[in-house]
Structures are given as structure tokens and as C-alpha cells.
């Protein structure tokens, strides 16, 4: 917990920030950039008091690694923007603009890029691949944390991130319609023994017949050899097989050039099919041939299937793993089912050719397809959803009464989550409905139970956490359920709750920073404050915004104020400095704006000091014991990283400050209390969702098929 | 205690509270970006990724709350929906008045006041019954049944010939003209009129069903669905499809011979799965 680059935390640097050009409040503090460039000299502007604060706060793990932290964090943010760049370029021209960007993975330079074909945008399998990829990136981040790599680009300027921000907008804007692919990031190093094989992304350098030349990042293949016999040909397979987990897999080939009467075969095969003949003719290979329009399934005698194809034609090949059918398309037109009973076991996209200079380009989904495969995917999904609609619930609910099961699930969810009022209202309304059916009317008697008290207690605790008032939550918890947080199994929850308190303090701090250093203010120096009305208005705006974001802001402030008194000894020094500074700057008549401004300013400084002190407390409680687990250590480090940013809300780690995280911790505490009361830790409806997703996932991995087309969170829960 | 099957662990990881969504659903992402953009524009902030990602998580958890809200609204629990909005800080149902209207119609049908229900339907969505002849016919049939019911239940028993007059008049005036348009209508009308002939105690199951209150519930549900559809809303609560999907997914998984515990419980308590497979106590061992 430290602020070695102390700059704008304290009053002196405020003036330095405000002197900068308008709108640069997103700039990381100057000293940060210096550090990132590897020449960090700690706190060249730090006042003596800050320096001592730094020294005393050095206990937090970050202090030791202060210089590396921002670098590591920055690594995380870079691939994102980079990938969006790729997304845009890739969308325009295949194979262009993504080599040379090596930032995604500094270790594995030769990764193929990670991209998501548009029709697989909701695929659970692709989501899993992406998660793995993220994990890999995190490992790299950890690596960088331990061993800083000199930044590849010396300028870590924010201007680039603003550009990327803009690009992100446009990228999203384009994505709502049409088969535009999304390159997300680079892929982890492919490994064959890996259970989750990546999507095909390029032709394989190894799995090909000699005489074939791979060009353009593995997307083009050209025949440069010669075939002696009429039987002989040269085939190639992709780097990875078509995953049955996707439900449908589809790719397209553009015939860039076809030799006279040349024979080109497009299809798929297993690794066992030999590559010295066209796919389709060999065992375990299937293909559609351009010279006669026939399709061949593992035999040299084919059947008439579609039109012939020649230069500039775009041929698509797809497998529907639900139906076991393979199909082809020509220039966006569906040609019908070519093969049945295709079992999805390690089938690789494959092409073969015979004549010199025959030249094909493949699209594995990195650029938009000619055929509207997205629609086909959607149709499949509808078929499966319709099948689900016909399902009878008897297997999971013996009475088979869907309405009763639904009602039971909802009621249990409300009780479990502690939505007491809703539960009451629902029980009353269902009772009334029951009465209206039976045609009798008796006075409603609300059910009375012990659970109600617990529900109310749990709701109070949850509300406190959701409001960001961790102290109140801790107080409630320890008075209602004294031993829950002391239990060994809940130690992590307790730790995260304590960390959250720190984050809430920093959140508050960030809000104050936002309120005191908004762009208008930056352009005006402090001494102009009193003479015009703008700053006042600005501050009010800022406060409105806070109120909007955080209805309970006042409570939090009060709590923090309380704390400030407790921390008075530590903060005295700082606040004295702060007050002096302000008084000097605003030595004119006292307007309301000034008072407001001063108030906010003092709070900001005090808050920082209080947070610092609390961070030290955290470190004492969790970080200094002998055997600190790495997760705890990392968490503490991450917390420390907040200090590296002038305005944490605008930093790459802003996610930590997000209010959404409160929900997670509130869930955990709620679950722990429920378990202590002898109840399941999660609501049956939560369990049901999770079971469904797990069942679908397992089934799709095992057999491909229908389960691959449905996603709980995308299809069943989405508005 | 239950042994931990690898499947159980997987379920644990996938619980909404613990699972973070990482792959954007584009429609949602777009909505989010628009939302963020307007908010962020004021702050003129950089660094979107962190925020967008974090917001996904929020939405994700509140997805379950959304499903609950969707249920309360579409199945017509206006009071609960309002409370739920307050307790979760979800936006209140757009128009709780329209939910109440649906509830009133439902209650009227449940109570056998069909004429009143038809009037209300025509008042709020006049074109539904003009367009959906099936629904209209079923309502009228129910109305006829209700008329017959009052006759049959008449105190003093044994209704006389004259007592049947209102039923016959209603049938000839309202239902008979529609009967030729669809063979099923004719059959239904015949069946309903037969209620007048049989004495109560000799009625077969087929006729008893017509007098069962479950028919009221069914018609009430159909009306509710029609109104929702007519308003361009989801015609049924999402949670129902979710529950079916859970059932479907298990049968698919078992058919694919995925390695699963012998029984997968929801944790709802006593009324779920009373050892349907016949191997008692298996759920505890698995």
C-alpha cells in the first residue's frame, strides 16, 4: 500500500495536474509513465509527509513491487485494444493487418490469432476457449509481474487508448448485424493433447503433401509441384479439427485460380486419410469436386451433387453435428445435403488439387462468409428450442405440474435471497388466485415462520454490502450470526469483505477525484474559482452524478467521516497542508462554491490517508502471517495497484471498483449464513441454471448435437 | 453425505453467482455500450474494457432476478412485481395497470364470470377476439358451461324443462352460428349440450372434465397468453422454458451417456423426485 509516485494525491501535484491541458485527467500521473519506462525515481515531487506515509505503509506487498505493478496492469489492457484494431482491419480484408502486432502474447510469438466466427458468437465451446485464453493471458501477466519486460512501445500514451475506445465503439456498433467476425485475442499455444482444441485457423504446415505452398498467414495454399499419374494429387488439412461442440462448423474456400480442367476437391478428412490423393477418394475423407460437381464419400466413385466450380467461385463446406449431415454452398447458395451419418470425430477441413498454380484461399471465419451461415445456425437453434418447449417436466418433478414447479422455484428463490416483501406479496396474490378458482373466500392469513426473521436479517446484511457499507454489514453479521465469519471455511469470505471495505474507500476517493478534477476545472486554475459560477455548477453536477450512481452515498460518507475521526492522528498533517493550500488559492470572498470545493478537497485528502491506514491494517491482519497463500497475496497486491492511478475510476483496474463486485461478495456472505442455518447455499433456481448449463456443456462435448445450440445465459435467460 | 461427483463440482462452478460471463452476447453488448456511452460521455472517460466487463457481471447475476420479474409480470402478480422492483432496484414493470387488467380478467374467468371477462377483453384489446376465433369460441363455450352449471347446481335439485331455457337460448344464439366454421366447434358444442341431458351422477369422465374448474384455469391461461402476444410481449414466462430445458438437457445427457450422478436434485425439498428410478436412497450415495 503505497504511493511512491505521489504526485497528484497531495495538494502540490493538484496544481500540476490542473496546469496540464484540458482533458488530460486520464493521463496516468507523469511519474507513473517514467516508472513504466523503467527509469523510475520514486516520488520526485513527494512532500515530506507523504514520503513518510509511503514508508510506513510499505508493509503492503505492492510496496516491494511498486515499479512493476503498473507495467503488469498495463499489459492486460493492451491486448484488448489491439484485438479490436485487428477486428476492424480483419473485417475489411482477409489476411491483412494482424501480423506484426505481437503485443497480445509476448511469450508465444507465433500464435495464430484468436478469433470468433460470427455464427459461433454464442457458442459455449468458443466461450470456453476464450476463457482458457484469458487464463493464459493472466499467467503472462503474473510472469510480467515477476520479471518485468521492457515495454515494446515506449509511449504508453493515453491518446492511443482513446483511439481504441473510439474503435471499440465502432466495432460494437457494427456487430449487431451481419456476419462480421470478432478477433478477440491471440490464442494460447496450441497443443494436441489439450482436451479443448482450438478452432481451425490456418492450413497446417506439417499436415500437407509436398508441393503445396502456404501463403498469407496460412490462409492461402498454392500447388507448385507436378502430378505424375492421373490418380495423384496434393491435399492439405487445417491445423485443428472441426469441433462438434459447436453444433455446426462451416468454412469457405475461394478458388483464386484453377488450372485448366484442374480438379479441386473441397471437404474434410481424418488424420488417417492419405494426402497424395484428392479428399473424397480416400478412406475417411469426404469432398465435393469442382471438375464434375460430384461428391465423394470415402470412395473413388461419387454421385452427382452440385454444379462444377471454377476460378472466383466461393465454395462453402459445413457439418451439422446435430443431424450428422454435411452440406456445401456455392457463392452463397445452399446446395443441399451431400453426406449423411457424419460422426464428428476429429474431422479436419481439407482441400486437394492437381494442377500447378492452382491457388485457393480459405476463410475459417475470420472474415464474413458469403453464405448466411448465421441464419442457418439460428434456424437450428429454433428447432432445438421448439423441441425443448415440448418437454414434459415429470422427470424432474414427479407430479408433472409445470406451474406448481415454477411457483415453487420462484417462492424458494425469493425466500433464499431474502426478498421478504416480494415473497409476502406473491404468497398473498397466489392465495387470492387460489380462492378465486375455488370460489370461496376466507381471510388471508400470512404464513408465520422463523425463516422470516432470518430472511430479514440476511436482507439487511445484503443491503449493507450492496450499498457499499461494509462496516455495517460486518456489524450486522457479527450480531445476528456471531460465528459465521469466524469459521475456517469462511475465512476467505471474511477476507474479501475486508478487502471490499478498502475498495469502497478507494471508490469514494475516486469519486471525489472525479468531482474535483473534471475537465472544466483543469482548464481553469484554482484561483479563478471564486470569480465565476462555473465551478460551483460543476461540483453540483458531480454530486448529482454521484447521487445517481450511489443512492446511499451519504451513508458511506458518514461512515467514512466516522472513520476519519478515528484516524485523526494520522491525517492531521495532511489535512493541515490541504487546508492551507486551499485557503491560499481561494483567498477572495467566500462563496458557496468555495466552501463546497474546500469540503470536497479536504475529504479527498483525508480519505486517502484513511484508506492508507486501513490498507496497513489489512496487511497486518492478513498479509504478514507466516504462510500467506498466493491468492491472498495477489489480492493484496491488486488492491495496492489502485494507488498507482491518479484516478482509479479511469484506470485499467477500474473493474475492481465496480459496484457489480458487491453483488458477488454479498452472495458469498448470504450463502455462508444459509449454510450455517443448515440450508443449501444457493437457491434452487440458481442450481437449476447451473445444472442445465453443465448438462448442455457435457452433452455437447460428448456428442455434439442439439445441446450445442442452446445456451442458458444467452438463450434462456436473455431478455 | 453425498459423495462429490465431478458433475456436482462443475455445477458449483457454473452457478450464476460465481460464474462470470466472458463472451459477449452482441445484442447485450450493444445495449451496454450505448448505455455506457451516454453515461461516460459526461465523464469523458477512457478505458472501457474494465467497465464493460464488470457490467456484464452485474447483468449476469441480475439475469436471474430478471427471470423472476418476468414471471411475476407475465403470470400476473402485480403486487409482487412492484415489491420485487423495490427490493432489487430493478426497473418497475412498465405498466402495472396492464398487469392488473390481466389479473382482473383472469379472476373473472376463474370465478366463472365469463361475460364480464369478455367485456373486459374487448375493452382493453378489442381486436383479440375478432382475430382469434378459437379463443373466442372457447370463452363462449365456457360461458355456456357456466350457465349450465348454475342450472345444475340450482337449490332444490332436479331442474325442470324451463330452467334449461337460458342455456339453450345462449347456445342457439351465440355458439350455433359458429359451429359450422370448424368441425371441432360442432363437436364441442354437442358435448357441452349433452351436459343438459345426463344426470350428474351418471356423467362420464369426459363430461366431468367440462365442469372441472381446471377448464377455467386453462382458458384463463390462454386468454392471458393471447393478451401478452397481442401486446408484442413474450407470451409465456421465460422460467418455464428454462425448467423444460433443464429436463430436456438431462435426458439428452443421459442418452449421450454422459457420466452423471444417478440423480440430480434441484434442492427444492420434499416434493421433488420421490425416488422415481426405484433405487431408493441412491441419491444419498451416488
UniProtKB/TrEMBL annotation, chain A:
Residue ranges, compositional bias (Gly residues): 88-98
Limits of the CTLH domain: 454-513
A Pfam cross-reference name: SPRY
Residue ranges constituting the B30.2/SPRY domain according to the UniProt record: 181-369
Low complexity bias spans: 42-53
CDD domains registered for this protein in UniProt: SPRY_RanBP9_10 (cd12909)
Regions annotated as coiled coil: none
Job description of the protein: Involved in the proteasome-dependent degradation of fructose-1,6-bisphosphatase.
UniProt protein name: Protein SSH4
Record organism: Recurvomyces mirabilis
UniProtKB/TrEMBL annotation, chain B:
One Pfam entry name: LisH
Highest rank taxon of the organism: Eukaryota
Signal peptide range: none
Residues of the CTLH domain: 98-155
SMART domains, alphabetized: CRA, CTLH, LisH
Function recorded in the entry: Involved in the proteasome-dependent degradation of fructose-1,6-bisphosphatase.
Protein's recorded name: CTLH domain-containing protein
Protein's organism: Recurvomyces mirabilis
Taxonomic placement: Eukaryota, Fungi, Dikarya, Ascomycota, Pezizomycotina
Amino acid at each position: 500500500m503505497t504511493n511512491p509516485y505521489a504526485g497528484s494525491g497531495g495538494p502540490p501535484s493538484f496544481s500540476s495536474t490542473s496546469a496540464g491541458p484540458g482533458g488530460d485527467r486520464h493521463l496516468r500521473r507523469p511519474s507513473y509513465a517514467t516508472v513504466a519506462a523503467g527509469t523510475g525515481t520514486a516520488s520526485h515531487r513527494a512532500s515530506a509527509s507523504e514520503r513518510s506515509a509511503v514508508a510506513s505503509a510499505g508493509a503492503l506487498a505492492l510496496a516491494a513491487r511498486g515499479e512493476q505493478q503498473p507495467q503488469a496492469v498495463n499489459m492486460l489492457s493492451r491486448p484488448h485494444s489491439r484485438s479490436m484494431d485487428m477486428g476492424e482491419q480483419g473485417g475489411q480484408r482477409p489476411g491483412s493487418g494482424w501480423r506484426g502486432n505481437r503485443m497480445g502474447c509476448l511469450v508465444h510469438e507465433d500464435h495464430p490469432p484468436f478469433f470468433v466466427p460470427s455464427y459461433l458468437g454464442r457458442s459455449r465451446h468458443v466461450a470456453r476457449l476464450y476463457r482458457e485464453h484469458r487464463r493464459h493471458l493472466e499467467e503472462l501477466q503474473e510472469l510480467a509481474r515477476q520479471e518485468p519486460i521492457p515495454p515494446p512501445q515506449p509511449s504508453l500514451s493515453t491518446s492511443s487508448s482513446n483511439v481504441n475506445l473510439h474503435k471499440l465503439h465502432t466495432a460494437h456498433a457494427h456487430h449487431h448485424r451481419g456476419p462480421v467476425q470478432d478477433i478477440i485475442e491471440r490464442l494460447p499455444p496450441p497443443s494436441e493433447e489439450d482436451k479443448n482444441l482450438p478452432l481451425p485457423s490456418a492450413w497446417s504446415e506439417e499436415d500437407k503433401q509436398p508441393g503445396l505452398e502456404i501463403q498469407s498467414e496460412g490462409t492461402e495454399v498454392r500447388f507448385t509441384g507436378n502430378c505424375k499419374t492421373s490418380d495423384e494429387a496434393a491435399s492439405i488439412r487445417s491445423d485443428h479439427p472441426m469441433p462438434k461442440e459447436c453444433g455446426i462448423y462451416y468454412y469457405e474456400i475461394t478458388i483464386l485460380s484453377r488450372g485448366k480442367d484442374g480438379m479441386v476437391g473441397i471437404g474434410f478428412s481424418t488424420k488417417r486419410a492419405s494426402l497424395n490423393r484428392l479428399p473424397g477418394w480416400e478412406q475417411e475423407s469426404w469432398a465435393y469436386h469442382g471438375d464434375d460437381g460430384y461428391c465423394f464419400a470415402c470412395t473413388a466413385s461419387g454421385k452427382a451433387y452440385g454444379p462444377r466450380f471454377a476460378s472466383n467461385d466461393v465454395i462453402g463446406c459445413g457439418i451439422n453435428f446435430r443431424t450428422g449431415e454435411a452440406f456445401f454452398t456455392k457463392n452463397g447458395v445452399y446446395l443441399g445435403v451431400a453426406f449423411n451419418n457424419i460422426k464428428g470425430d476429429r474431422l479436419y477441413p481439407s482441400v486437394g488439387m492437381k494442377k500447378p498454380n492452382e491457388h485457393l484461399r480459405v476463410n475459417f471465419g475470420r472474415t464474413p462468409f458469403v453464405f448466411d451461415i448465421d441464419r442457418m445456425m439460428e434456424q437450428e437453434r429454433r428447432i432445438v428450442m421448439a423441441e425443448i418447449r415440448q418437454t414434459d417436466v415429470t422427470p424432474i418433478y414427479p407430479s408433472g405440474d409445470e406451474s406448481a414447479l415454477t411457483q415453487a422455484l420462484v417462492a424458494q428463490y425469493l425466500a433464499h435471497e431474502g426478498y421478504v416483501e416480494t415473497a409476502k406479496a406473491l404468497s398473498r396474490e397466489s392465495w387470492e388466485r387460489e380462492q378465486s378458482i375455488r370460489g370461496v373466500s376466507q381471510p388471508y392469513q400470512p404464513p408465520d415462520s422463523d425463516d422470516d426473521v432470518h430472511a430479514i436479517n440476511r436482507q439487511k446484511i445484503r443491503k449493507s454490502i450492496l450499498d457499499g457499507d461494509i462496516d455495517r454489514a460486518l456489524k450486522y453479521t457479527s450480531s445476528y450470526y456471531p460465528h459465521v465469519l469466524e469459521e475456517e471455511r469462511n475465512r476467505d469470505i471474511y477476507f474479501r469483505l475486508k478487502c471490499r471495505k478498502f475498495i469502497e474507500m478507494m471508490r469514494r476517493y475516486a469519486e471525489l477525484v472525479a468531482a474535483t478534477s473534471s475537465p472544466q476545472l483543469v482548464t481553469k486554475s484554482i484561483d479563478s474559482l471564486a470569480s465565476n459560477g462555473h465551478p460551483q455548477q460543476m461540483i453540483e453536477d458531480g454530486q448529482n452524478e454521484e447521487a445517481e450512481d450511489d443512492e446511499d452515498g451519504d451513508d458511506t460518507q458518514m461512515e467514512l467521516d466516522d472513520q476519519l475521526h478515528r484516524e485523526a492522528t494520522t491525517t492531521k498533517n495532511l489535512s493541515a497542508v490541504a487546508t492551507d493550500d486551499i485557503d491560499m488559492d481561494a483567498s477572495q470572498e467566500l462563496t458557496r462554491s468555495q466552501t463546497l470545493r474546500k469540503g470536497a478537497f479536504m475529504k479527498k485528502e483525508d480519505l486517502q490517508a484513511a484508506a492508507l491506514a486501513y490498507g496497513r491494517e489489512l496487511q497486518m491482519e492478513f498479509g504478514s502471517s507466516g504462510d500467506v497463500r498466493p491468492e491472498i497475496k495477489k489480492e493484496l497486491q491488486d488492491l495496492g495497484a489502485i494507488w498507482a492511478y491518479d484516478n482509479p475510476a479511469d484506470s485499467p483496474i477500474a473493474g475492481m471498483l465496480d459496484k457489480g463486485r458487491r453483488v458477488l461478495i454479498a452472495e458469498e456472505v448470504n450463502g455462508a449464513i444459509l449454510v450455517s442455518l443448515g440450508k443449501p447455499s444457493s437457491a434452487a433456481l440458481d442450481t437449476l441454471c447451473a445444472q442445465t448449463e453443465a448438462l448442455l456443456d457435457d452433452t455437447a462435448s460428448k456428442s455434439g448435437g442439439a445441446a450445442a445450440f442452446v445456451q442458458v445465459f444467452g438463450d434462456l435467460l436473455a431478455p | 453425505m453425498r459423495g462429490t461427483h465431478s458433475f456436482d463440482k462443475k455445477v458449483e462452478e457454473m452457478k450464476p453467482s460465481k460464474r462470470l460471463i466472458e463472451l459477449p452476447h452482441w445484442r447485450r453488448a450493444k445495449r451496454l455500450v450505448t448505455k455506457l456511452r451516454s453515461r461516460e460521455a459526461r465523464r469523458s472517460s477512457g478505458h472501457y474494457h474494465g467497465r464493460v466487463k464488470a457490467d456484464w457481471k452485474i447483468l449476469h447475476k441480475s439475469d436471474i432476478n430478471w427471470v423472476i420479474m418476468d414471471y411475476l409480470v407475465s403470470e400476473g402478480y402485480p403486487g409482487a412485481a412492484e415489491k420485487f422492483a423495490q427490493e432489487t432496484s430493478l426497473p418497475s414493470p412498465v405498466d402495472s395497470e396492464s398487469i392488473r387488467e390481466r389479473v382482473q380478467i383472469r379472476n373473472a374467468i376463474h370465478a366463472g364470470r365469463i361475460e364480464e371477462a369478455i367485456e373486459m377483453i374487448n375493452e382493453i384489446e378489442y381486436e383479440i377476439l375478432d382475430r382469434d376465433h378459437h379463443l373466442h369460441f372457447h370463452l363462449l363455450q365456457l360461458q355456456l358451461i357456466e350457465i349450465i352449471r348454475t342450472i345444475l347446481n340450482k337449490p332444490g335439485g332436479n331442474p325442470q324443462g324451463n330452467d334449461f331455457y337460458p342455456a339453450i337460448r345462449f347456445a342457439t344464439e351465440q355458439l350455433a352460428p359458429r359451429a359450422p366454421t370448424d368441425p371441432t366447434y360442432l363437436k364441442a358444442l354437442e358435448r357441452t349440450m349433452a351436459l343438459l341431458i345426463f344426470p350428474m351422477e351418471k356423467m362420464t369422465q369426459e363430461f366431468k372434465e367440462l365442469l372441472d374448474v381446471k377448464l377455467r384455469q386453462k382458458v384463463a391461461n390462454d386468454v392471458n397468453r393471447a393478451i401478452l402476444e397481442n401486446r408484442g410481449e413474450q407470451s409465456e414466462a421465460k422460467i418455464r422454458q428454462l425448467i423444460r430445458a433443464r429436463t430436456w438437457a438431462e435426458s439428452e445427457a443421459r442418452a449421450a451417456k454422459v457420466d452423471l450422478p444417478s440423480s440430480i436434485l434441484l434442492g427444492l425439498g420434499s416434493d421433488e423426485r420421490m425416488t422415481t428410478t426405484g433405487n431408493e436412497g441412491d441419491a444419498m450415495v451416488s
